[in-house]
Amino acid sequence: MNQCKILITEDDTVLAEGVKINLELSGFSVLIAHNIEEAKGYLTRDTQSGQFSLLILDVNLPDGDGIRFAREIRASLSIPIIFLTAKDMDEDMIAGFQAGADDYITKPFNVQVLLQRVHAVLRRYQTAEDEAKSMKVGNLVIDFESYTVEKNGKMISLTPTEFKLLVKLCQNPGTVLTRQVLLEELWDKDENYVDEHTLTIFVSRLRGKISDEEFTYIKTVYGTGYRWIGAEKG
C-alpha cells in the first residue's frame, strides 16, 4: 500500500499538515486541498496522471458541504472516502454513509486510529478489486484479465470462444441462459452466425475441460439452455 496516493481535503491547515506528515511516514503519497474547488482541480488532473487511492474529506468546508461534494464524486469516480467531522450526531453519520462514505471519524481523533482506518478501507477496496479480476470456484481459478483458467493449480487450455462461454456462464450464477442468449452473445453479435449444434459442441468441450467427478459446474436445462451451478453438486 505504500504506493497509494491520498488526497486530504481539510481547511484546518494545522490538522491537515499533521495528518499528511503521519501518512507520509507510513509510506503514502499525500496532497492537501483546503477547499472543494481545490480538491476538484486535483481530482480532475488526477484522472489524467494516475488515480488517487483514497480521499480524506472534511464535512464542513469554506466553499461548500463535504457530503454534497462526496455525492458528486461518487457519480463519476470509484474512490474510497473517509469523512472527518466535528459532528457526532447519528443523523450526520447516516448522511455521510448515504453519500458514499467508507468510514467516518469525529474530531478530535487519534492520528494512529485514522491510520488504522485508512489501511482497513484500502484493504477492503483492494480485496474487492482482486475479486473482480478473478473468480475462485470449486477447484477452478478463472482470471478475467489474463484469460486463463487453473484447475487444481494447473493451467488448462481453453480456446477464446470456450473462455467467453465460461465467463458468460460463471458471471450469471443460478440464471438459466437460453441457447438463443448464448448464441447471440458469443457469435451473432459479432456476425459469426452458427447453429445450436455448434453451441452444444462448445458446451460439451468446455465441460470436458473443467468438470470432474467432484464438480459439474454447468447444468443442462433440457429444452431451454444451461445454468452455472458453481461448486454445487449437480
TrEMBL record:
<feature type="modified residue" description="4-aspartylphosphate">
    <location>
        <position position="58"/>
    </location>
</feature>
<dbReference type="InterPro" id="IPR039420">
    <property type="entry name" value="WalR-like"/>
</dbReference>
<dbReference type="InterPro" id="IPR001789">
    <property type="entry name" value="Sig_transdc_resp-reg_receiver"/>
</dbReference>
<feature type="domain" description="OmpR/PhoB-type">
    <location>
        <begin position="132"/>
        <end position="230"/>
    </location>
</feature>
<dbReference type="Pfam" id="PF00072">
    <property type="entry name" value="Response_reg"/>
</dbReference>
<feature type="domain" description="Response regulatory">
    <location>
        <begin position="5"/>
        <end position="122"/>
    </location>
</feature>
<keyword id="KW-0238">DNA-binding</keyword>
<keyword id="KW-0804">Transcription</keyword>
<keyword id="KW-0597">Phosphoprotein</keyword>
<keyword id="KW-0805">Transcription regulation</keyword>
<dbReference type="Pfam" id="PF00486">
    <property type="entry name" value="Trans_reg_C"/>
</dbReference>
<feature type="DNA-binding region" description="OmpR/PhoB-type">
    <location>
        <begin position="132"/>
        <end position="230"/>
    </location>
</feature>
<dbReference type="InterPro" id="IPR001867">
    <property type="entry name" value="OmpR/PhoB-type_DNA-bd"/>
</dbReference>
<protein>
    <submittedName>
        <fullName>Response regulator transcription factor</fullName>
    </submittedName>
</protein>
